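Q: Hi! First time doing this. I have a protein sequence and I read that you can turn it into a structure. Is that right? Here it is:
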Amino acid sequence: MSKTVIHSDKAPAAIGTYSQAIKAGNTVYMSGQIPLDPKTMELVEGFEAQTVQVFENLKAVAEAAGGSLKDIVKLNIFLTDLGNFATVNEVMSRYFQQPYPARAAIGIAALPKAAQVEMDAIMVLE
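A: Yes, that's right. Below is the predicted 3D structure, encoded as structure tokens:
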């Protein structure tokens, strides 16, 4: 099976040895996105703004792969403070409609660049 590298200039450039996403067959494996503004490569401020930026970054990569957020079947959310879980749900409701993707929300100690939230996803294209 061939692999295709997916890249979008509308999402932050990789800050390590990884691709924004890899397409294998009709499945797209999207790398974790933190709330970096793709123009400045700086973190946006405030938890809600960070969550919005992460969804915007995922959306840009999904579109570069030929899909959209509605094609995401699995979403992993990493939070440095699980007390922000309700805010994640509220912001997520702006980007997704039923049927929602399968999801995990995981509390962790730290994220790159001191981000408060990171998300990765698996998307299946028709």
